[in-house]
Design goal:
Layout lengths: L1 E6 L9 H10 L7 E7 L3 H5 L6 E8 L8 E4 L4 H4 L11 H10 L9 E7 L11 H4 L2 H12 L1
Parallel strand pairs: 1-2, 1-3, 3-5
Antiparallel strand pairs: 4-5
Length: about 150
């Protein structure tokens, strides 16, 4: 099974982009071996209960010094250096959980995790995405669909 897990707070502007993508993926006719999960603002509890998977794709926003709207793809070796860039609106950090898996040498399904991070700047209270984010949602979905193949 391939699990696609989106995180985000839809009440904090662009922080909700991961959930917006998940909602669009849920409406698509994807193969039965693909499970879409809306993680909302839940933290590691959802990861601890996701079960076995062939691949786990996580979609979330982050803030760094990059250009707003950029899409980045990271795999487990980059998780430790990436930890401080994830927003903390999702409860206990899922990136800390994955970092601990990587650092402890746990292999198996946890080595098949891919993170798609969308660079955001707007986290003000509100449900609308910035045009620089919402206009790129089709591109983000295209990249994720390619990852599923």
């Amino acid at each position: 099974m391939i699990v696609v897990l989106g995180y985000g707070n839809t009440l904090r502007g662009d922080d909700g982009v991961g959930i917006n993508i998940i909602k669009k993926l849920e409406k698509m006719n994807l193969p039965g071996h693909i499970k879409i999960i809306n993680g909302g603002i839940r933290g590691i509890d959802i990861l601890m209960n996701v079960g076995e998977f062939q691949k786990l794709i996580i979609i979330d926003s982050f803030i760094s010094d990059g250009k707003e709207g950029n899409l980045y793809r990271f795999t487990p070796p980059a998780f430790p250096e990436f930890e401080d860039k994830i927003l903390s609106t999702h409860g206990p950090s899922w990136i800390s959980f994955l970092k601990s898996k990587v650092e402890s040498g746990v292999e198996g399904c946890w080595s098949n995790v891919v993170f798609y991070g969308i660079e955001i700047k707007n986290t003000i209270i509100g449900t609308e995405l910035s045009p620089s984010i919402s206009d790129k949602i089709p591109d983000y979905i295209y990249s994720i669909i390619k990852e599923l193949q």
